[in-house]
Amino acid sequence: MMRHVSTILFLVAALINFGPVVGVLSPDRMVALYGVSLDDPNLEILMRHRAALFGIVGGFMLTAAFHWPFRAVAYAMGFVSMIVFLFVAWLVGDYGEQIRGVARVDILGLVALFGAGVAQYFGGRIGYGPGAR
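Below the sequence we write its predicted structure tokens.
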């Protein structure tokens, strides 16, 4: 049971990280998501590259949701990705409603990832925790 809970919560976090990948092909989607103008080609390149990196992180996390040996690295990638975004947003401080929404989703992703870790620990799937085999 706990393994299923862990996988579901892990998938939520993975999909949150994978979601922005559509920005690689659709800059208009990034404008809607982040509330920024991509009139500067340099900014568009950076944002599309950012979307590709999210695809890598999210794709790896999606793989790790079903391939347990990858989980430890995927947890690290997910936590670092979301925490760094929230930290940078906090440092800058003056951001729009779209970025505030992204921050809220990242907080949800962190909660899901933490819950997945707790469920995985108590499910004993990877050799530690009370249910380890």
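Residues 128-133 have pLDDT under 50 and may be disordered.
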